[in-house]
Amino acid sequence: MRWCDEKSFVKSWQSEEKAIWYYNPVTKKNARYFPDFLVNIERDGKIITEVVEVKPQSQIDGPPENPKKRTKAWANAVMTYIVNQAKWKAASNWCEDRGYNFRLISEKHLGLD
User: In angstroms, rounded to a whole number, what is the distance separating the alpha carbons of residues 63 and 84?
Assistant: First the structure.
């Protein structure tokens, strides 16, 4: 949020204001997803809208496919990864329909690792 406030090329931003419908493959129901940010950026005299989701890099990369032990924590990480993939696909399609960009960032992108 501070980054958005400090950058002169960021013309406006919102946090968790837009709902995007997606199919949750775990619950097998439609659900609403609220991306972290909707940001309007000025580039080359044009306003570009980006939908931004901030997640830990571990959630972006996903859990190991063949861990030594299949613990409850690992199973939860798998479910989280599956749901996140469905959300991000829906967000990407939603953005494409509107001419927006979808951006997924982590602590690495923010210089926090």
Answer: 12
Give the C-alpha separation, 106 to 52, whole Å.
10
Other C-beta atoms closer than 10 Å to the C-beta of 89 total 13
Q: Looking at the DSSP assignment, which residues form a beta bridge with residue 92?
A: none
| Block residue for tokens 């939860």 | 76
Instruction: Give the CA radius of gyration of the chain.
Output: 16
pTM for the structure as a whole: 0.86
C-alpha to C-alpha distance for 60 and 62, rounded to whole angstroms: 6
Which DSSP helix (H) or strand (E) runs through 14? Answer: strand 10-15
Map out the domains of the chain as residue ranges: 2-105
pLDDT tens profile 57-81: 989 999 888 888 889 989 999 999 9
Helix extents (H) in the chain: 2-6, 57-61, 72-98
